[in-house]
UniProtKB/TrEMBL annotation:
UniProt xrefs under PANTHER family: 3-OXOACYL-(ACYL-CARRIER-PROTEIN) REDUCTASE, NADPH-DEPENDENT REDUCTASE BACG
Family recorded in the similarity comment: Belongs to the short-chain dehydrogenases/reductases (SDR) family.
Short name of one Pfam family: adh_short_C2
Protein name (Swiss-Prot/TrEMBL): NAD(P)-dependent dehydrogenase, short-chain alcohol dehydrogenase family
Length: 257
């Protein structure tokens, strides 16, 4: 990677753990001024990253985060909408309450819409910017036993991202989606453990069941850094003609070309 990212300002939501942490670290190494949001502070020194505590399921949080970034840096060049999680229990439609659907929608879709709406006017004024929305392979390959409401919210995110890319492309702003498959993050490991407990099986058996269900030709989980590598490329000038695309990083799991 060249020095094209040096000095740019980036926001990484959900940037203290897992994929978000890996992305924030990779961008920092590229010379980016990284702002990280999460509900809780990072556990360790983040090498100059600027932390803003925020619960993005709350409607007012996006405006608060945007205001603080612009007051501190005066610009925003990169938005990585990474905050998201499968909040609902497994078991299909019958176990999902209105609250489950609402919570997944707020975290996995509306948080992205609000952050982008708060910061896009600055990107438009700059006539330049890049947005990466982190989705999931489960939006195209839903597992009804485990991810129904989460998959639905992320599928909406995919459509929104394409529409937004079409709208703001002529204004100098690129929007892409990265859809990881099974990634070795704290959230995924917790998900496997919870699935094991609810199914009365061991964690190893739960992991095998998930991998068998998803079908990963490479036969392993991705490392967060493998997702971060693609994101870093997509926000760089090497990807200046790429917008409106959804990239699967799933070890070959998606069974279509």
């Amino acid at each position: 990677m060249d020095n094209s990212l040096k000095g740019q300002v980036a926001l990484v939501t959900g940037g203290t753990k897992g994929i978000g942490k890996a992305i924030a670290e990779r961008l920092s190494k590229a010379g980016v001024k990284v702002v990280v949001t999460a509900r809780t502070a990072p556990d360790e020194n983040t090498d100059g990253q600027y932390f803003i505590p925020a619960d993005l399921t709350q409607p007012e949080s996006a405006a608060t985060v945007a205001k603080e970034i612009l007051e501190k840096y005066g610009r925003i060049d990169i938005i990585i909408n990474n905050a998201g999680a499968n909040l609902s229990p497994g078991g299909g439609f019958s176990v999902l309450s209105d609250e489950h659907w609402y919570n997944d929608w707020q975290l996995n879709f509306m948080s992205v819409v609000r952050i982008n709406k708060a910061l896009l006017p600055t990107m438009i004024e700059q006539k330049k910017g890049v947005i990466i929305n982190i989705s999931t392979g489960a939006a195209k390959q839903p597992i009804w036993e485990m991810t129904m409401s989460y998959s639905a919210a992320k599928a909406a995110l995919n459509i929104y991202s394409k529409a937004l890319a079409n709208e703001v492309g002529a204004k100098g702003i690129r929007v892409n989606v990265v859809s990881p498959g099974v990634v070795k993050t704290p959230l995924m490991l917790d998900f496997i453990d919870n699935f094991a407990k609810s199914s009365n099986i061991t964690s190893d058996e739960a992991f095998k069941a998930i991998m068998d269900k998803v079908g990963v030709p490479l036969g392993r989980m991705a490392e967060p850094e493998e997702i971060a590598s693609l994101v870093t490329f997509l926000v760089s000038q090497d990807a200046n003609y790429i917008t409106g695309i959804n990239y699967s990083v799933d070890g070959g799991a998606l069974p279509i070309v």
